């Protein structure tokens, strides 16, 4: 797989996650070792990684995620409700909405759940600009997802579980100064024929020097 193929075919995989095939923890560790090479602000490396394989814990997290997804699907901002008046995008949005609903029902069945987290100095999120803070974990999480793709694994970046961040933190025994950034289901994929997604033309969104 060339770098271009890797970067353009690493999809958010939901309906094509194989919930019945185990994932070796050693493979997840390989992906995380790669993720640790990502940059972080001031080289603090304040990330922490919680890998959940216990069936009961996965089921409990999945139940919280299902409740969050149900609320999301009822909201006006749900993916399937967006761009309804744009025939070029409506069908794609409907498929995304269906896949979100599917993962909402099955998150707890994913053989591995990975939660990238941040350790907060001072124990609290700062007021104002937090881009640098979260920007210190996002590249590492994406590197994990890319590494997983090269090993035949599918992932999806999800954050709806954060509606129940406190409950999940208690379930996993997270310290008070550790905050969750995402919930990434990880599983083998059903098939490997992923293709680049349809995106807006670059010239529609590119601004050079000024808007």
UniProtKB/TrEMBL annotation:
**Where is each Nitroreductase domain found?**
9-182
Keywords carried by this UniProt record:
Oxidoreductase
Q: Which Pfam families match?
A: Nitroreductase
Q: Which InterPro entries match?
A: Nitroreductase (IPR029479), Nitroreductase-like (IPR000415)
Keyword Oxidoreductase set for record: yes
Taxonomic superkingdom:
Bacteria
CDD domains listed in its UniProt record: Nitro_FMN_reductase
Family stated for the protein in its record: Belongs to the nitroreductase family.
This chain belongs to the protein called Nitroreductase family protein
């Amino acid at each position: 797989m060339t770098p271009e193929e890797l970067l353009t075919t690493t999809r958010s995989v939901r309906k094509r996650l194989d919930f019945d095939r185990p994932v070796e923890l050693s493979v997840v560790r390989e992906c995380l070792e790669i993720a640790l090479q990502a940059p972080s602000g001031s080289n603090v490396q304040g990330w922490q990684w919680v890998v959940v394989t216990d069936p009961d814990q996965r089921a409990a997290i999945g139940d919280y995620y299902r409740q969050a997804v149900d609320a999301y699907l009822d909201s006006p901002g749900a993916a399937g409700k967006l761009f309804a008046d744009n025939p070029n995008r409506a069908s794609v949005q409907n498929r995304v909405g269906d896949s979100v609903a599917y993962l909402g029902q099955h998150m707890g069945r994913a053989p591995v759940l990975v939660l990238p987290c941040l350790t907060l100095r001072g124990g609290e999120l700062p007021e104002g600009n937090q881009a640098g803070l979260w920007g210190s974990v996002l590249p590492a999480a994406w590197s994990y997802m890319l590494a997983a793709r090269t090993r035949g694994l599918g992932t999806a970046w999800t954050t709806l579980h954060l509606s129940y961040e406190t409950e999940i933190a208690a379930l996993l025994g997270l310290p008070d100064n550790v905050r969750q950034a995402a919930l990434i289901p990880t599983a083998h994929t059903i098939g490997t024929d992923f293709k680049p997604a349809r995106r807006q033309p670059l010239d529609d969104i590119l601004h050079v020097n000024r808007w």
